[in-house]
Every structure is written in structure tokens, then in C-alpha cells.
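G., before I forget:
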Amino acid sequence: MKHAFLDHHSQTESPIHHLDARAKIIVFFTFILIGVSAPPTSLFLFGLLAIVLIGIALFARLPLGHLLKKVLVVLPFLLIVSISIPFMKKDGVGGGYNLGLGGLSLSRSGLWILWNVVIKSCLGVFSIILLSSTTSFPQLMKGMEKLGSPKIFTMLTSFMYRYSFILVDEMYRTKRARDSRSFGGRWFWQTKVFGQMIGTLFLRSFHRGERVYLAMLSRGYQGTMPEGTAGRLGWEEAVFLSLVPLLIFLRIYLIR
Amino acid sequence: MDRNKVIEIIHLSYHYPDGTPALKDIDLKVYQHQSVAILGPNGAGKSTLLYHLNGTLMGEGKVTILGIPVEKNNLKEIRRRVGLVFQSPEDQLFCPTVFDDVAFGPLNMGLDGQGVRHRVTKALETVGLKGFEARSAHHLSEGEKKRVALATVLSMDSEILALDEPTDNLDPAGSRMLMERIQSIPQTKIIVTHHLPVAVDLCERAVLLYEGRKIEDLSMGDLLRDRVLLEKFGFDADYAQWMYSRRKG
């Protein structure tokens, strides 16, 4: 069965793709930290961050349209949470805008909060999408491990990634088997079948977990995952990492 | 110990946790470089017997591998010597990349980086998948997964290979390709299968199990000529006859 992979485009050939995962993790997380820590009024900094991120995306030969579409996926969730803020916030100073609709008014500071949430989330999500589009999942896990992330966390995430595809396959197979023997019926009965399907998937995953553990034991597993070999950071990574002090300088220089 | 005897099983019995008997009083001796097929219908105890070879399961009786008894204290040594390939490659391949999966055994054995890389390259070459190191298991075809699963134990340089239904779920071309690779491996092989052609091509000796008991232990040639035995186990005796004449030819 074919799946949409989480690390789509991570196999593209570009200088950014070839960089060590550690450098990319550090740089993209710096982007997120700088963006999140800036006040909502620092429009110039937000613009600059967006331009640099788009520049990296173009340099990495990633299709911008695809990336922007992925960013837009988070917008509905964001708006559900934050759209009411401008209508709820009562301004002390600065005032708001009366819409003349049954006493409905827009608050100025509420609008800034909405902008703050939207721009920071979009920049953060864009950074993460760039990271996952330029780094394959296994490299990402290795990079995090080398940066000191707990081994148990990367191990569990790797297993989850590896077996999520098999779980999805099993879910589709179960669904097909259900559909081929299902002749309609009231939604209540469908709910019951759905519950049984989830139970079946859980039991299968549980048993698979036991078999995988036996396969690990058979190859000498004794409770700790073996250490991989560490790669070396070269001058390309050093150039890319130079973005970190540059971003910190801009953050301090532009907003005082 | 007999010279060249690599596996010795004496009076082995095993019950599932719910009390159902799975193996009943099995005796078996396997010698170096032999290829032995464990044949039998579903539920005969073939896989259960295989899992006793590296201590994945431990029943009553005695199992000895290269003179070392299969006991809790010896499991590390035993698992270094017996490479077990599970029926489903999805169970065998649990790492993010092919390299990590093939390197898992050698790393657990304490090999250094260079040694591990050498073992991985060699094992992948043997199964015809050189250059697949960075691929993820879910990007591979079923046949490729089976070959990587084989490479995960070849990289451990085990003296004994225990393969559970190696050609299961494979198309004829994939099955042929895998069988050629298995044939080229010189180690002692114990192969569980219910496909007679697979057993005939890969093994010179057949052990037949039925409801947990060893019914027969004979050469592949003798099995192919024994119509009564073949029909008792549901094999096509005419086809077996043809395979026998092809082997002789």
C-alpha cells in the first residue's frame, strides 16, 4: 500500500538536504524561538524571518506552493481557537472599532493578539515543515539523539513512525473487510462495528509489539539500544549554523 | 559430543501458556553445513520448534547448540550463534533504515563502527541489496523486505540460520530470487516451510512434524519417493516424483 510520507521531499538533492541534521534542528528551532519571543508589533522582524525561511526553501529546491499549502492546514485550528479574541477583549486604552451590528465591537488589542497568534504559529509551522522536508525521519531522530534527546524518546518515536504505516495498512484492510460484508444499517450498529475494529487493531498491535520484542531479543537486545556512529560537522554546517548568532543579533538589535 | 554436531535436541516438549501441548518429546540432531527442512501442516509445531533453537521459547527437555545448553545464562552466546529470521519481515525490521536494522545485531555484539559497516555491506551484498542502506523498510517490496530480514542475521555471522517460512507471501520471481540467495549461504540451515518445492530446492534432509510430534526424519530423496508419507501430509506425490527425477537428472 502507498502512503503519504511524513517526510515528503526529504529525499530531494540540495545542499540543505545534505547538511547534518543537528545543524538544521538547531537553526530551525532558533527561528521558532526568535519568532515566538518577539512582540506582535515587530513586523519588520517577522517579515525578515519569513524572507529568510522562503530563501532557504528555494535554496533547498522545495516547491513553495506545497509548503504554503501545508502551513495553511494549521490555519483553521488556529482560527477556531483565536477568532473570538478581538470580539471578547475589552480595551482599556486605545479603543476599538464599533461594527454597528447589535453592539458588536472589535477590540484593537484583541486584533493584535490574533495577529500575534497567527503569525507566530505560521512562522513556527513553516520552520518545522522546512526541517521535515529537508531531513529524513531517521536522520532527524539521529540528530536529536546526538543533541542529547533521551534515547527512550527517540526509540519510541522511531518505532511509532516505523509501525504507523503498518497500522494504517491494517486499518484499511479491516475497513475493506467490514465494507465488503456490510449492507448498511443504522448508524448505531455501525458505531458498534467501529468500536470492535479499534479493539481488533489494538490487539493486533499489542501482539505485533510482542513479536517485535522477540525479534529484538533474537538479535542480542539486552535492554539498551546500541549506539550508532556519530557523523562529523563540516564547514557547510558551520556556515548554516552562523544563522543562529545572526538571528539572535537581529532579535536584540531590532527590538530594544 | 559428536564431531560437527551443531544442534542436539533431546526429549523436548512444550506447552502453550494455556496448557495446549505444542511439542511432544522431540529428538533431533543436526550436523554442520546440513540444510534441514521442517515440514508439516499448519499447527504442527514447526515454528515453535524453531523458536527453541535460540531460547525465544524454552520447554522441557534439553536443547544444545554447538555444545552450549540453551539456558537463561547462555542466551547471549546462543543468540550470537543462531540467527533466527521470523516469518513476517515487518516483525524483523523495526529500525528506521535498512542500515540500522542490519547493524542492530553486530552493534549488540559490541563491534566497533568500522566492523559494523563492513558486516552490513557484506550482508547486503549477499542478499543482492547493495546500496539499500539508507532506505526505510516501508519503502521496500515484500521480496526486498524478506531479503533484508535475512541480511539482519547474516550480518551477525551466525553458524546456524533458522528461517521461518522464508518464501511466504512472495511472488514466484521473488521466491526464486530469495531461494538462490539462501542456497549460496554455506551455514547450517534449519528451514520451516509447508511448501515442498522450497524444501526440495534448499534442503537435503526433511523432518516431518504432525500435531507436535516428529513423525519422520529422512533424506529429501527418500521423502520424494515415499508416496504413502507424501499423501499423508497432503503433498502431491506425482509432482514429488517429478521433482525426484529432476534432482537425479
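The radius of gyration of chain B is 18 Å. Chain B has one domain: 5-248.

More on Monday.
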